[in-house]
Amino acid sequence: MATRTTVVWVPDWPVVAATTADEVPGHLPAAVHDGRRVTAVSALARAEGVRRGMRRRQAQAACPGLVLLHADDARDVRLFEPVAAAAETVVAGVEVVRPGLLLLPADGATRYHGTEETLAERLVDAVARGTGHECGVGTADGLLAAVLAARTGAVVEPGASPVFLAPHGVTELVHATVTPEAAVEVSALVDLLHRLGLRTLGAFAALPPGDVHARFGRLGSWAHTLARGLDERPPARRRPEADLEVAAVLDPPVERVDAATFAGRRLAEQLHDELVARSVTCGRLQVSARTDDGTELVRTWRTDLGGWGGLTAARITDRIRWQLDGWLTASAVATARDRGAAVGAGRPGRGGARPRGSAGARGDLLDLLDADPVADLPDVEPEDEQPVALVRLVLTALDVAPAGAEQSRLWGGPSGGDLRAHRALERAQSIVGGAGVLTATLQGGRDVHDQVHVRPWGEQSAPPREAALPWPGRLPDPAPATVLTVPVRVDVRDGAGVPVVVDRRGSLSGPPVAVRWPPASAPAGAGARTVAGWAGPWLLTDRWWNHPGRPPQVRAHVQVAFEDGGAVLLTWADGAWTCEADYD
């Protein structure tokens, strides 16, 4: 008999979290996008025709009044922590499958509360009372059936999950995934099933399990198990291996998320090394912390499909950072309210503005209060406020099983070189500091230099300028592979050996035929390089307002490919050509 599973589901959680953080009115249609496509849509936006996977312009064409919000995993996890805490007031030991979806074993909770319907009612009331969010609760045999039942608040009778799932499309398998990477893999599997004519879960479940595994591999067996109303990894089960635990005492106590995450990163590496050394994997990851006032904070995360590549040290660190962000924010606000109530009772009638612009939600309580209008406590004076501090951090690998029980990928898995490179970077960062090891990412901008954003290695913060904005005058893709810190002066000639210039109309005086570098900066083995093809020019005029009274400076960009291989980006400005970037 399959394990009874209860799911707590907050519809469209990424949109709910984004609108809550940005204070978007609830009557406006909203959607979340990741810079490429829409990833989550509110009910109002769906009614206007907006769908997941649409590009920005498609979504705005379908709904002109659509509010587009940026995707942020850390924000989604941080704001979902109060929902998980509210559910734990009814049932202890809930699992976070992903932000917006909680999982718990129904058998013991049902015996305690009486019936599965009563359990669902109390969970809905607890979440609404504790957070103000509406949620759906479903109970069934297996994870997928419980997730689909939560949409309507249904309780599927024991043994009836296969019948309940049969008419649903195979596209519903995506809702049982844990990570975006797993969702992409399952979407590819769904596309294959559609091309083979298997469009419903019932048709897929009717196939023999051995044939499914032989044809679709490990991922197909996982999907087939869910389609039959079973759960590959139930919420509660007998563990064949002992749990692995690593802990660190934080002395002095840590008050900031970035400092606590730095300690958590070492624990993540240690736990991952333990898993690899013992040749085991884990189905769940438990993050525990103790505050300076003795409060124990515990949260359990469900990992993805397993394997060392699924739960890497970097992914463990991400979960630690997200969880600490949610804990310190929620705990700090609660502490401030309690302390503010006590101070306000002792000092009635006090007022005055509180200074802003301090460290923010990751370490300073003042900005937390400024960001939360409910927690606006003018009675609390700055010298009386103390942020929440952590004194101990523990990571526990739950549902430990031998790694040989699962088939690893033949190609594309993590290599020893990858792990050594990560360790080397983290060791260097621990020596020179977090800002001493930097990585470059793309951000919004018109010029190639403006599009480069440098941030500390391992940090997942969003760039200051969104790349999804229009940015008129921006060069077309692909972006250059290497942007030179200092542009190199070059000489561009046409077929007659005459220098190529850009006239007042923005046109080239002649097609470029050769490009010559100064001897000191010429590419290896290259003097004058022969041009095989070119594109442009693209004209760019920006920041003209910084120099009032002067004519705006116009720059022209030209992409040039050479006969000996390679390509560069040339820029015409102030009557001269420079090489600004290289293409692979």
* Structural shape: globular
Q: What CATH architecture label of the largest domain applies?
A: 2-Layer Sandwich
**Percentage of residues in DSSP E strands:** 15-25%
Uncertain runs: 236-240, 305-309, 339-385, 405-416
Question: Biggest sheet, strands in spatial order?
Answer: 7-1-6-5-10-9-11-8
Backbone structural class: alpha+beta
CATH hierarchy class name of the largest domain: Alpha Beta
Q: How much is the radius of gyration in Å?
A: 28 Å
Number of strands: 19
Please count the helical segments.
15
If you had to describe this structure to a student in words, what would you say it looks like?
This protein is α+β, with helices and mostly antiparallel strands. The chain folds into four domains: 4-227, Alpha-Beta Plaits (2-Layer Sandwich), CATH 3.30.70; 245-348 and 358-406, DNA polymerase, Y-family, little finger domain (Dna Ligase, domain 1); 427-467, no CATH class; 482-583, no CATH class. Helix content is 34%, strand content 23%. It has 15 helices and 19 strands. The chain has helices spanning 13-22, 43-47, 56-62, 73-88, 106-113, 116-131, 143-152, 161-165, 180-195, 201-205, 209-227, 257-278, 313-346, 365-371, 416-432, and strands at 4-9, 30-33, 38-41, 67-70, 95-98, 101-105, 136-141, 244-254, 280-291, 296-302, 390-402, 438-442, 452-456, 482-493, 514-516, 528-540, 555-562, 567-573, 576-583. The chain has an eight-stranded mixed β-sheet with strand order 7-1-6-5-10-9-11-8, with helices on both faces. β9 and β10 form a beta hairpin. α1 (13-22) crosses α4 (73-88). 34% of the residues are buried.
